[in-house]
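Listing 4. Sequential folding, example run.
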Amino acid sequence: QEKLVESGGGLVQPGGSLRLSCAASGFILDDYSVGWFRQVPGKEREFVGGISWSGDRTKTADSVKGRFTISRDNAENTVYLQMNSLKPEDTAIYYCAADRSYIATTPVEYDYWGQGTQVTVSS
């Protein structure tokens, strides 16, 4: 069974940092681009950023550009989302997703999804 599992979420103060991990099992993640999305109640799932299969190219949303960085370690079958200078508006459930296409920005394009991890930014 192909699965993705997010981890690393939690409660952090504004200005703090978190690193989220997305670990794959049951398939080889380096065959896939990986996207990060976030969602809050009452709103659509929002594209945060993504990374190509080799890690040579990334995309980030304007709302997180300069603060969030995506990387991957294909030997570990894992993709990371480093979040710095966190703001209260970053509070959401964060999901990772994998697809054979090139860093799609819409959720419908992705084949596999993790269960999500909660990030709460509050003082």
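-- end of first protein; second protein begins --
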Amino acid sequence: QVQVVESGGGSVQAGDSLRLSCAVSGRTFSTYSMGWFRQAPGKEREFVSSIRWRDGVRDYADSVKGRFAISRDNAKTTAYLEMKNLRPEDTAIYYCAVRRGYSGNSRHPPDYNYWGRGTQVTVSS
């Protein structure tokens, strides 16, 4: 079975930076993309960023453009989310997900096939 494991979360002050990692193990896929989502208390899960594995085309939510950057390591089947200038409103559980069988990016959670358990990011002012 495919496993998705996030790491790198923590508690930081506003303006600080964090790097999240998403490692995928088990079955490999020839065509897939990876995405980051987040969910704050009392809110629905929202799209943060995604990357197409083959060519590295990226997509970002407006709320994180210019502050977050998604990247990939093909050999390790690992995606990263570099987060800079964090704000209290970024506080959430961050989830990594894998979408297989399609080459395009998606902001729609049901389009993703495999999910990690999440890693907590807390930003205080």
